[in-house]
Every structure is written in C-alpha cells, then in structure tokens.
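thought: user wants a sequence for this fold. calling inverse folding tool.
action: design(structure=
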C-alpha cells in the first residue's frame, strides 16, 4: 500500500545582489551583509501540485562577482566561502 511522503530536497539557489564597492573583495563583504541583514531576503514560492514548501538550505558554497562595467565578464571572479579566489583546475584544499 502506498503512503504520502514529505521529501525535503535541499538545493542551492543563486541570488544576484547589487552593491557599490571599491573592489571585488569589498563587494563580497557588502553583498554578504545585505544578504544576511534581515534573514533570507528572497521568497521561494512552491508552484507544483506536490510541492508543499520551499526555503533556503542556509548553506553558502561560493560566490561569483561580476563587475557592471565589464559586459564581457572578463574580470568576473569566483570565490570560495572564505572569500578566496577560486583558481580553475585547482581543488579548494590545494
């Protein structure tokens, strides 16, 4: 006999935050402050028939910083959770 099950699926979402900053490291700090100042600032709205609830998993796994005046994203940089630049091809523990 089948029974209803509630399955919590934890996903990572991307939230784009606009901040004024002198450099990318400062931008990371300011975005983090804006993002965490009043709890999670984005609503996740369940729309599927069987989707009962949605909320963030409270886990930041990294960052990407784009500069507005860089339309080709040539200065875009990925950072880890410690605000250290990620180097392509190099594991975080290296």
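)
observation: tool returned 94 residues.
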């Amino acid at each position: 006999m089948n029974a209803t099950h509630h399955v919590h699926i934890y996903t990572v979402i991307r939230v784009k935050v606009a901040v004024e900053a002198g450099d990318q490291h400062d931008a990371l700090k300011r975005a983090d402050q804006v993002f965490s100042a009043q709890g999670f600032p984005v609503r996740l709205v369940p729309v599927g028939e069987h989707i009962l609830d949605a909320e963030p998993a409270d886990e930041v796994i990294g960052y990407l910083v784009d500069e507005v005046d860089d339309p080709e994203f040539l200065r875009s940089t990925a950072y880890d959770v410690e605000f250290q630049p990620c180097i392509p091809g190099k594991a975080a523990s290296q």
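thought: summarizing for user.
answer: Here is the designed sequence. The two ends are 51 Å apart (CA to CA).
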